[in-house]
Write the structure tokens for this entry.
Amino acid sequence: MGTIELEGLEFFAYHGFYEEERKIGNRYQIDVKISVDFSSAAQNDKLKDTVNYEDLYRIISGVMQTKSKLLEHVGQLIIDEIRKIYPNVNEVQVAVSKFNPPIGGVCTRAKVTVIG
């Protein structure tokens, strides 16, 4: 058992509760952590026995292109799509950050973490 993580994936996307956010867009960061048994891959050096980083990036990139109102929804969509391709993963954690959220004050980023 072990974890595979991709950190600091950045996207420009059109998510947000307010219609204006979904029109003008914003920068987002995604961090994903997957718990999976990759002992076979560690022993046999075969990519088919683990989770492919390229697949993860494609999955996340695809989800980021679909407009959503809530960061929680974005995180859950990423988990759902990862589980479609890799149904045997034990747990997926996705942190979704929005830079400079419209909260009426100074905030570097808003962040939610979804676990599924």
Q: What stands out?
A: The first helix runs from residue 19 to 24. The chain has a mean pLDDT of 97. The CA atoms of residues 32 and 94 lie 5 Å apart.
